[in-house]
Write a structure and sequence with these properties.
Blueprint: H1 2-23, H2 28-74, E1 76-87, H3 91-95, E2 99-111, E3 114-126, E4 131-142, H4 149-160, H5 163-190, E5 195-196, E6 205-209, E7 217-226, E8 232-241, H6 244-249, H7 254-269, H8 271-282
Antiparallel strand pairs: 1-2, 2-3, 3-4, 5-6, 6-7, 7-8
Helix pairs in contact: 1-2, 4-5, 7-8
Length: about 290
């Protein structure tokens, strides 16, 4: 506002000068030169304003481009954000050169199909030598989702007040959940008679029932966990289910060794190929 008022006053002064020059010009050449100079200064001022506007527009487009890139890379979109600041500096702190500020942040957003809201507080303490900041409170609210493990992940982030771990791991956590869902659905569609998902489309386990020998089944439990450093770790376990009579006939302990053999198969073939091999071993020749 001040800059606009200053510019307006300058223009008024230039107009007044032009009027005086036209009313009583001391010399034709001097008046013409003065008019040209005035218009040049006005044009230069406008040009500088245009250049400033172009710079701001360019910077805004650059920031929007960076935001779009990060959203595409991480799948995280921040929709709303607000911040409140409270000065906690006492008189004694001021005298000793210490400043204490409490920041309250609120934001909401999405990660793929998961919606979240965050509320956290950051306490900043600054003295003459350094500035320190710590998250004193973190609350994470998630909308109801089919991914049951997500609540465990959120609880761990809240307990540690680790905001960085939450954002870093959320993308990979949801990606693994989506990959598990797609993989189980693929085998359910391909082997509808043998594959069953007891917990629905987002099931954590897949039951494979033998179409050759009724009573034989294998249950694959696929858990998605976060490590101490926030790394996302998918874990697949095999739980064999066989009739008691068949178990008594298993003199070589093949049933008991099945979980370890499945782990070795995962390491050698990968998740999809290992599951394919497992299912085909229990299916009939026509693939049902």
């Amino acid at each position: 506002m001040d800059s606009e008022l200053t510019e307006l006053r300058a223009l008024e002064a230039e107009i007044a000068a032009l009027r005086r020059a036209c009313a009583a010009p001391p010399a034709l050449g001097d008046a013409a030169a003065r008019v040209r100079k005035s218009f040049q200064e006005i044009h230069q001022s406008d040009s500088e304003g245009w250049e400033s506007s172009k710079d701001l527009t360019s910077k805004l487009r650059h920031l929007e481009s960076e935001q779009l890139f990060l959203s595409t890379l991480t799948g995280i979109n921040i929709r709303n954000y607000s911040k409140e600041t409270e000065n906690l500096t006492s008189t004694e702190m001021t005298e000793t050169g210490i400043k204490k500020v409490l920041q309250r942040h609120r934001l909401s957003g999405t990660c793929h199909m998961v919606t979240f809201q965050l509320e956290f507080q950051i306490l900043e303490v600054q003295n003459k030598e350094n500035l320190s900041s710590v998250i004193t409170d973190l609350t994470i609210m998630m909308e109801p989702t089919v991914y049951s493990e997500l609540s465990e992940f959120v609880s761990r982030a809240e307990e540690r007040r680790d905001l960085f771990m939450f954002f870093r791991s959320l993308h990979f956590f949801v990606e693994w959940c989506e990959y598990r869902k797609r993989t189980f659905k693929h085998f359910k569609d391909k082997y509808p008679m043998a594959v069953h998902l007891p917990e629905g489309a987002a099931s954590r386990c897949m039951r494979v029932q033998s179409t050759r020998q009724p009573g034989f089944e294998l249950v694959v439990v696929w858990r998605i966990q976060t490590g101490d450093a926030g790394e996302v770790l998918p874990t697949l376990d095999l739980l064999p289910g066989v009739p008691r009579q068949a178990l008594q006939l298993d003199k070589e302990g093949l049933v008991d060794a099945a979980p370890l053999s499945f782990r070795a198969l995962l390491g050698a073939l990968g998740i999809e190929a290992a599951l394919e091999s497992l299912i085909r071993s229990l299916c009939t020749e026509d693939g049902e």
